[in-house]
Amino acid sequence: MNAAFFTRPLACLLSIMTLSGCVFFFEPHASSRWEVPAGTSAEEVFICARKTVQSLSSGNGRWPADVTRLDTKEGVLDIGDYLHTDSAGFKVLVTYAAEDHEVQVNLRGGGPYNLDLGVDAGMARIRRGMEVCLSRPSH
Fold this sequence. Notes:
The protein is of the alpha+beta class and 139 residues long. The chain has one domain (27-135): 2-Layer Sandwich (TATA-Binding Protein). 37% of the residues lie in helices and 24% in strands. It is built from three helices and five strands, in the order αβαββββα. It has a five-stranded antiparallel beta sheet, covered by helices on one side. A hairpin with a 4-residue loop joins strand 2 (67-71) and strand 3 (76-79). Helix 2 packs across helix 3 (119-135). It is elongated, with a radius of gyration of 18 Å.
């Protein structure tokens, strides 16, 4: 059988999925959830998240520096436009449920053709940085 028999339909399918936004499902991602001390405010969580991501972005252009959305009442911080599917680099979405003292961080990190930029290692660095920051008396 001719290799083009399989290659062309696959290429068409991938093109359709990319154009329709389905590429989101294939982009490498990681998430982590943990509890923080009672009384921690959303503002404190988001300050630590921004500091952590900024420290990562200072040495690597794949990390975002711009806050796309910040809503302390809803408990949402978006750095790098998390829902934007057609750009390479890391995107970070932090949510905080104050009543449960729970932080959730979602990280997407795709390069060209959804090459994994190292989301598992990136998630470990974000979590470690945030945990250190949130354990300090003054953020």
